[in-house]
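Two proteins follow. First one:
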Amino acid sequence: MDTRGSRLSLVRGGAAQEFTVTLRNGNSADHRHLLVAFQMEVLVGEPGDRPGSGPGFLLERFDATSGAWRPAELRVANDTRPLSLYAGGGPLAREAVRVERYRLRATAGGPTGSTPVVVSFVDTDTDREAAAHVLLGHSTG
């Protein structure tokens, strides 16, 4: 994971902040479908905040082929999603490296608070994590 300042500090309705995820496959096997999955716990608003009026966050992935940002899934929940429910992902050959660009924005009506974004690496062919998940520090004010 690479961010400016080693964490995301978002402002509701403000600009998105970019970060990259670098995948390195040092295993003895190729991955046909390796998915980078994102989840964070529900943020509880500050006293006096009005309830949010929408999803709260917008996660996008940069598509180098088209040069455009595309929506990416950010699961906001306090439970764990079973790995068998994930689908998709791209190939990552043995000894290969892939860098993916993302950006996250807090919507104007979303909550404030702080909770890490859990970044998981799911092999959707085997319904297993290909590597240990990592945490991306995050706060929204």
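Second one, unrelated to the first:
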Amino acid sequence: MEGVLAVIALVAVVVSAGAITVAAHFRTERSSEMRAWAREHGWHYTEHHPRPLEDAVLPRPVHGDHARAQHVLTGRRGQYLVTAFEHTHTASAPDRRGTGRTRHTYRVVAVRTPGPVAELEIRRRDLPRTVPDHGIGDGDVDPAFGSAFHAVGSDDEFTRSVLDHDTAAWLLADSRSRSLPVRFTGDYVLTWAQMGLDPDRALTAADYLIELVNRIPEQAWKRRASGA
């Protein structure tokens, strides 16, 4: 019996060591692929970064224990600075199954805005809830927009500037809004999704954010910069 237990223990050690080796090889291979993509597109790559978006506040689903930003890509898309990365965290206790610690991975894509912004999150109502279910008043937005989207912000004037009639109509008509929630925070507008980072797909998300920024009236940035 002791011999059988010893063999089982040895097999467990070998399997564990093999898994660690494979995982390390996969990380190295992904880093090499990201570096190659960055060189080809004239971007900058960092394998790990403590705060890739400075003081920006990430959306609630991205938060968690032992959070880490990795595979950070930074470059320009036209006149706009774009940052894309993977953000991982350990599941909170209520979400765990058994005794394991589940690791969640999110792709975050951010575009630096022309000026500072107020906190504002916009998502389709059929997306999983990420913010408390209260937001701007019913009289502030088109009824069609209010029935399709949920928006909550820290500054009513900035929210109204972002969600004027033309921008609200564009968000309603653009199918990308169904899979790309948006958050304004710090000096960025960002979107997130529960997936790994694919640089080319991240560019598609960045283009969506840039289109949104280009539709926002210039006075929205000036007002925030002046603190009015």
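SUMMARY FIELD: Residues 2-41 form the longest helix (40 residues). The longest strand covers residues 65-77.
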